[in-house]
Design a protein that fits this description.
Elements: H1 10-22, H2 60-66, H3 69-98, H4 121-132, H5 147-175, H6 178-181, E1 185-187, E2 191-196, E3 199-208, E4 214-228, E5 234-242, E6 252-253, E7 259-264, H7 276-279, E8 284-294, E9 300-307, E10 312-314, E11 316-318, E12 322-325, E13 328-331, E14 339-341, H8 349-355, E15 369-375, E16 381-388, H9 404-434
Parallel strand pairs: 2-10
Antiparallel strand pairs: 1-3, 2-3, 3-7, 4-5, 4-6, 4-8, 8-9, 11-14, 12-13, 15-16
Helix pairs in contact: 2-5, 3-4, 3-5
Amino acid sequence: MLARKGLLPDGFLLTRLAEDATQPSRIRPKSQRARFITKNGSCNVAHKNIREQGRFLQDVFTTMVDLKWQHSLLIFTSAFLCSWMLFAMVWWLMAFAHGDLETRDTNEPGPVPCVTSIHSFTSAFLFSIEVQVTIGFGGRMVTEECPFAIIVLIIQNILGLIINAIMLGCVFMKTAQANRRAETLIFSRNAVIAPRNGRPTLMFRVGDLRKSMIITATIQLQVIRRTVTAEGEVIPVCQLDIQVENPLRSNGIFLVSPLIISHTIDRGSALYEVSAQSLATEDLEIIVILEGVVETTGITMQARTSYTPEEILWGRRFVSIMTEEDGRYSVDYSKFGNTVPVRMPALSAKELDQTRGIQDSGPHEGKPQGWGVVRAGRGGYRRGGGRACDDAAAKPWYVTAEREEDKEKRGQKKTVKLEEIGREIEEETVEDMSD
């Protein structure tokens, strides 16, 4: 759809199709479950057996805005037709009661009618339309003969203004909804897990096709999974927040160009025990929520998407799409979702930490726990949650740490050598003294 509108080149769609074709096929051990958030951001939840339907009528305006366009137009058209018919009946009954519908000789002067030129229900219906939409052709008008006719004229004008105000407000709100601006915010079709700065990291890409920016943009990640409590209670929907990689521990982003949003999988992550083999069988869904204020209109917008285990690629990373040309940065959206394989073991982050000697019993005594600042690229830093603030340099997960037993053994060997050397020196000294 975006390619037809000229917002994206045709090569973008061709590249995405080629990318999907080249991805290795996954064997799904079970049928694909339903997702809460679809790829286009709509909520995939059906509400059934709602007994208190009258609650929706207490907030009529929001209900009208939430309706589909065809339903809204049908309601507005029906409201206008019903109001015209109702007041046409009132005008016709008024003329009938006053005797204005009786045929008279045109040469003889008769009584003054309440409304001139009303001879049938059709003429009363036309006069009702003229009054409510203020057309005023001039053929029919209210006279001073009937005060009740003046009251009906005022009531119909007020009712017509109310219907017009509600219709214009609903149309404006429907055209300026937050999801309309989200049509030009794109997310990568797949998320990836690849090593970054020595730690396995979940990454996906987000971009904005418009030149007008999103002010105070924030992004939030949540993991929805089925959990069982210690008491045996099954929680079908358990929402867990996961931290977005940011030096300030905030979710704010500057979306001036496509960004790769990353989440470091550490001890405090919900994906800490997920490996390449268990990823295909995990019953989880990662929901991405991007919020901000539209620069041109000042309306708060929200864009959503989600990633299921089938859409998370293990051991791949995104290719670079930004280059510097003629003193400005250029973005190639044809490579927006392209990925390349990287060298990465199939172990989970927990298993990788165990190979480094990090025990599950907790942090060592005397080491303060906090957010360690680690260099994260060009001029930036990142924080890792729940890691000890050691003075020693951090080693990557693929480097095996020395065991404590080996250190003790080596220390004992050195001590024995020193003792033997000391004994030899003492024996030589005693012999010299005896001589």
